Amino acid sequence: MNKSLRPAVIAGNWKMNKTPAQTTELINEMKPLVADAACDVVLCVPFVDLQAALAAAEGSNIKIGAQNCHFEKSGAFTGEISADMLKELGVTYVIIGHSERRTYFGETDVTVNKRTLAALNAGLTAIVCVGEYLEQREQGVTNELVALQTKIALQNVTEGDLSKIIIAYEPVWAIGTGRTATADQANEVCAVIRETIAGLYGKAAADSVTIQYGGSMNAANADELVGKPDVDGGLIGGASLVAKDFAVIVAAASK
Ligand code: PGA
Q1: How far is the CA of 129 from the centre of ligand 1 (A)?
Q2: pLDDT tens digit string along 221-236?
Q3: CA of 128 to the centre of ligand 1 (A)
Q4: Do the Cβ atoms of 211 and 191 come closer than 8 Å?
Q5: Using CA positions, which residue lies closest to atom 1 of ligand 1?
Q6: Residue 114: pLDDT above 90?
């Protein structure tokens, strides 16, 4: 398995944190710390922070993403944001199907697929999240479940569009809990996702897809996690709100 076939991507997921003014401040603090990154660096911020983030990141190597988008282009969907709206702002990435959206906001594998297709249609790169609950891990169904989530998320995604897909493997029990998957657990499931993609599109295509790990990745454990052959970076929650910690993770993925 050759990691050089695909970029490592470290993406921060700020969740519902930071105001626009705080966004400017934090990105200004991060910029010099990640300027030498040899991996892609993305910050996915709340919708209302996007313009401040884009302005602060301009001219730097930090790319800006949103945390969700709707699957329709426009219409009577109060409170929703379309992929075209994000695109016009200058946003280039969007997280789709984060477990918090699946758990609290009724996101299903089918809506994850619809949102993924909408993101691709608008020319955005979709960071598609998959992952099991603790109970499912204990039942021994993690690999089948994650393979199924991946397959459904990728329905009608063409091979040509795979370059705009990142899969984030995020075991739900590891998110925001401080309980990280071991590097071997993370690598095993990332490899299952790659095999699943290989089954759909062929091995060469699968080798070119970035597959991240997410779930309590931090400055202390990033090195080991991103050092694994099938782990191509990370989706970082809590540690992406602390500039120096985020920079350590970016440095780990730059090796
Ligand atoms: P965490 O969040 O790093 O705070 O566990 C990861 C995520 O939810 O993407």
Answers
A1: 11
A2: 999 999 999 999 999 9
A3: 14
A4: no
A5: 237
A6: yes
Q: Which long-range contacts (CB under 8 A, 24 or more apart) does 187-190 make?
A: 187/228, 187/229, 187/230, 187/231, 188/143, 189/142, 189/143, 189/146, 190/228, 190/230, 190/231, 190/232
Q: Domains in the chain, start-ordered, CATH in brackets?
A: 9-253 (3.20.20.70)
DSSP 82: B
Residues 51-83 pLDDT 10s: 999 999 999 999 999 999 999 999 999 999 999
Q: Which atom of ligand 1 is nearest to the CA of 236?
A: 3
Query: Which residues lie with the beta carbon below 6 Å from any ligand 1 atom?
Result: 13, 170, 175-176, 214-217, 235-239
The counts of H helices and E strands in the chain are 11, 8
- Give the pLDDT score at 211: 98
CA 33, distance to chain mean position in Å, is 21
Ligand 1 centroid from CA 123, angstroms: 25
Rounded mean pLDDT, 106-115: 98
**E strand or H helix at 155, and its extent?**
none
Token digits for 233?
């970076």
Mean pLDDT (whole number) for 86-105: 98
Specify the pLDDT at position 3. 84
- 0.90 exceeded by the pTM? yes
In one-letter notation, the amino acid at residue 135 is: E
Q: Which atom of ligand 1 is nearest to the CA of 240?
A: 3
- Residues designated as active site: 98, 170
Q: Whose CA is nearest to atom 7 of ligand 1?
A: 237
| CA–CA distances in Å: residue 44 to residues 18, 57, 127, 208, 217 | 12, 12, 10, 23, 16
Q: Ligand 1 atom closest to Cα of 239?
A: 3
